[in-house]
Design a protein that fits this description.
Layout (H helix, E strand, L loop, with lengths): L1 H21 L3 H17 L10 E8 L13 E6 L2 E5 L5 H7 L7 E5 L5 H4 L2 H10 L6 E5 L3 H11 L1 H11 L11 E5 L4 E6 L2 E7 L9 E7 L2 E5 L7 H6 L5 E7 L1 H13 L3 H9 L7 H11 L3 E8 L5 H8 L28 E4 L27 H7 L16
Parallel strand pairs: 3-4, 4-5, 5-6, 10-11, 11-12
Antiparallel strand pairs: 1-2, 1-13, 2-3, 7-8, 8-9, 9-10
Bound molecules: zinc ion (2 copies).
The site of one zinc ion (ZN) has 7 residues, from helix 4.
C-alpha cells in the first residue's frame, strides 16, 4: 500500500513537472493557444438559433449598484433565427461575446426606459454587431425619447466609426449598415412581428420615468415576459397572463433599508436619501412572486437584483425573511429563481408545439415541483401548448452575468 502511494505521488510529481516546464516552452505555448483559439472562434452556440424553440439568456442581472462580476440589466431572447436584446446594461455585451453569440444575428434592441443602467452599452452593441457583419442598421425600439438617446450614442461613437472604416475599408465596414435606427414606441401594443415572433410592449409603473415599458415575446405557442423596471403592477399581471416565463425585477427592500440606515449612521446622507427613495418604484421579491402567481406563469425568474447579492449570506437574506413568502403558494425560498438564475450561459429552452424541453442539457430544475405558480392557467394557451411539462425549466449557477 505504502509502495503504491509512493509510485502514485511520484507519477503526479513527474506530470506536474512536465506541465510546469512544458508551459514555458514556446512550441507548447503555441500549440495550447492554437487549440484554445480554434475553440473560441469556431465553436459557436449555433443551437441557440434553432428556430424550433424560444430561448432566453440572461446577459445582465445587476442594477445600478456595483457588483464585481454581474453585468447590468440585459435579457437576450432567441427566436426565428435571431436574437433580441431587452436593455443593454453595462458589461452585458461582454457576456454575449464571451458566450460567442453571433452578433451579426441581432434582430433588434428593445429599451424599457432610459435609466443609465439600461442603456449604457448601446454604442457598443451597435459597433460590435456591425463589426460582426450585421446585414443592416440596428433597430432600437424604446419609449418616446429613443431618437435622442440613439443620436447621442451615434455621436459619441462617430469618431471611432470613422477610424474603423478608414482602417478596414468601407467594403468590410459598410457605413450604411453601421447606423442605428430609432423606432419610437408611443404607446403599449405590438412593436414588431417577424419570422413568427410577436413582441408586444406594455406600460409599467416606474414614475417619474414615463412611459416605461416591459416586453412580451410570443413565438410558436411559447411566451416570455420581461418586466423592465416597475413597482408591483397589475399591468405586469395582465401582460404576463398565462406566460411560460416571467422575468421580473426584484429589489430586496430589507437590505436597501439596512444600507440606508448604515449610511445615515455613517454620515452619508446622499446615499441614505436615495435608499429611502427607491422602494416606491421597484418590486420586492415577494411582490414579484405575487405577480407571477396572479398571472399564472410557469416560471418566475428574478433579475435586475437590487442590491446584486455579493455573497450567499446576502442572497439568503434577500429572498428569505418575509412572512408572506410562504403564503404565496409555492414560491418558497427553494425555488431557486432568486439565486440559481442570476446568469447562465445555458439558455432555458422551450420546444415549440408539443415538444416541451424539461431543462437545458438535461439538468434538473432546481426548484420543487410545487414551485409552479398556482394561478389560473389560460385554458386556450394551455391547449395550444400541449400538456404540462415534466419539470420546470432549469437554470444553473455556472456563471453570473
Ligand atoms: Zn434599472
Ligand atoms: Zn429604472
Amino acid at each position: 500500500m505504502g509502495r503504491l502511494l509512493g509510485w502514485g505521488l511520484g507519477i503526479v510529481a513527474v506530470l506536474a513537472t512536465a506541465v510546469f516546464v512544458g508551459m514555458r516552452v514556446p512550441a507548447v505555448q503555441d500549440a495550447v493557444a492554437r487549440h484554445a483559439i480554434d475553440r473560441l472562434l469556431l465553436q459557436r452556440p449555433e443551437h441557440l438559433f434553432d428556430d424550433a424553440a424560444l430561448r432566453v439568456l440572461l446577459c445582465g442581472t445587476s442594477s445600478p449598484m456595483p457588483h464585481p462580476t454581474r453585468a447590468r440589466p440585459c435579457v437576450a431572447v432567441f427566436a426565428g433565427g435571431r436574437f433580441y436584446v431587452v436593455d443593454v446594461g453595462t458589461g452585458s455585451w461582454n457576456r454575449l461575446a464571451g458566450w460567442r453569440v453571433d452578433g451579426a444575428r441581432i434582430g433588434a434592441v428593445l429599451l424599457t426606459h432610459f435609466h443609465s443602467d439600461h442603456i449604457g452599452e448601446l454604442g457598443e452593441y451597435d459597433l460590435q454587431t456591425w463589426t460582426a457583419g450585421r446585414p443592416g442598421p440596428l433597430r432600437v425600439f424604446g419609449p418616446p425619447g429613443v431618437s435622442r438617446v440613439v443620436a447621442g450614442f451615434e455621436e459619441a461613437y462617430a469618431l471611432d466609426t470613422g477610424y474603423r472604416i478608414a482602417h478596414h475599408g468601407a467594403e468590410l465596414m459598410d457605413p450604411a449598415k453601421g447606423r442605428m435606427e430609432a423606432r419610437s414606441v408611443p404607446a403599449a401594443g405590438v412593436v414588431l412581428e417577424e419570422n413568427g415572433l410577436t413582441v408586444t410592449a406594455f406600460a409599467v409603473e416606474h414614475d417619474p420615468v414615463k412611459p416605461a415599458y416591459g416586453y412580451r415575446f410570443d413565438y410558436r405557442g411559447r411566451s416570455v415576459v420581461v418586466s423592465g423596471d416597475t413597482a408591483k403592477s397589475e399591468r405586469v399581471v395582465e401582460a404576463a397572463r398565462g406566460a411560460d416565463v416571467l422575468l421580473h425585477e426584484a429589489q430586496a427592500n430589507r437590505i436597501v433599508a439596512q444600507i440606508g440606515e448604515a449610511a445615515a449612521r455613517g454620515g452619508l446622507p446622499r446615499i441614505a436619501k436615495i435608499m429611502g427613495d427607491i422602494p416606491d418604484y421597484h418590486t420586492s421579491p415577494v411582490e414579484a412572486a405575487e405577480v407571477a402567481n396572479a398571472a399564472g406563469v410557469e416560471l418566475l425568474v428574478m433579475y435586475h437584483l437590487t442590491p446584486p447579492p455579493p455573497n450567499p449570506l446576502v442572497e439568503a437574506s434577500s429572498r428569505a425573511g418575509s412572512p408572506t413568502c410562504a403564503a404565496t403558494a409555492g414560491w418558497s425560498p427553494t425555488t431557486g429563481c432568486w439565486w440559481s438564475c442570476p446568469g447562465t450561459a445555458t439558455p432555458w429552452r422551450w420546444a415549440a408545439s408539443r415538444r416541451r424541453g424539461s431543462g437545458p442539457r438535461g439538468r434538473a430544475a432546481p426548484g420543487r415541483r410545487g414551485a409552479r405558480a398556482p394561478g389560473p392557467p389560460t385554458p386556450a394557451g394551455r391547449a395550444a401548448r400541449g400538456p404540462a411539462p415534466p419539470g420546470r425549466p432549469g437554470c444553473g449557477r455556472a456563471r453570473r452575468s
